Amino acid sequence: MFNNRALVIVIVLGILAWVGSASLYTINETERGIKLRFGEIVENDIQPGLHFKWPILNTVRIFDTRVLSVDASATRYLTSDSKAVIVDSFVKWQIIDPGLYYEATRGNEQAAERLIAPRTDEALRNKFGQTTLTQIVRERPATQSDNQDVVKKVREENSDVATERDELMVDPISQLDQAMRQELGVRILDIRVKRIELPSEVTQAVYERMNSQREQAARGYRAEGTRQAEEIMADADRQRQELLASGRQIAETTRGEGDAAAAAIYSAAYQQNAGFFDFYRTLQAYRESFKGNDDLMVLSPASNQFLQLFKQGNGETSSPAAP
Question: Span of the secretion signal (predicted)?
Fold first, then answer.
């Protein structure tokens, strides 16, 4: 009897232990859960902590609510100016409604990614189709001009995302976030573009056009430099001519003043002793005339006044007056 009672107690304790372990469950801080009864959701968005469920009747599905990523493949889009670009992007998303998420995907993360990827592609295709290539490649911080309320709402909800984002992504984020909340019970935190490239068939054409533009700009700079150099040289030549003309004018004026002063001195000296002045000037004329070895002059002393001193040497005339 004692053995039977002990066996019963052990069995009862085992059943109680199983019921306790099957009835209690915990949810971590990074998780949310739903409670099902025969596949039907009876409790949604179960918060972190210790919870109770009925064994066999209830089952619990727990989902990771941390930020997840969908890495989209590089896709070709056409811009509003009919330019093709290849965009490589990824999406950050997070579960906010575990019940709706379970109904849409049966809790399969890959199924959720397969639903998010095409909607992301559609949103990006629409946005790139409304944007020119220049606006796409130009880097600028996000503004709140056209989508102030949307940007503010997204930034408030996504505090872990950078406070500045590319304005190009604001519309796709808001559109995709609204759709995914209703369809999957997830929110879209961010769409990031890893790279934007031109297709290989147009890269060479773009490079040649850019090279042509740079060459045209270089020719313009060279022409402008040549024009400025010619202007500088012309101005320098004009200043040179002006300086030379001014110097010649000053020189001629100084020379004229010197000649005038010399003439005045000669005149004053002549007036003091006219005979000696004539004698001195005649000697200077002789020196200039006979300084060469090959000079030959045929003159008649009797008829030429230039040789009057030679006549005086023969006693024909008197010597000049003493000073």
Answer: none
User: CB–CB of 104/183 below 8 Å?
Assistant: yes
- Which CATH code is given to the segment(s) 66-140+170-199? 3.30.479.30
| Overall pTM > 0.85 | no
Domain ranges of the chain: 1-63, 66-140+170-199, 205-288
For 243-270, how does the pLDDT look when each residue is reduced to its tens digit (9 = 90+)? 999 999 999 999 999 988 888 887 787 7
Task: Tell me the CA distances in angstroms from 153 to 66, 67, 156, one per residue in order.
Answer: 20, 18, 5
Within the chain, strands assigned E span 24-27, 31-37, 40-46, 49-52, 58-64, 68-71, 75-78, 84-95, 186-197
Closest Cα partner for 75 from 189, 197, 172?
Answer: 197
Nearest in space to 63 (alpha carbons), one of 11, 27, 113 = 27
Query: Are 131 and 226 within 8 A, CB to CB?
Result: no
Could you give the CA distance from residue 219 to residue 227 in angstroms, rounded to a whole number?
Answer: 12
Give the tens place of pLDDT for each residue, 85-122. Answer: 888 889 999 999 998 999 888 888 889 989 999 988 98
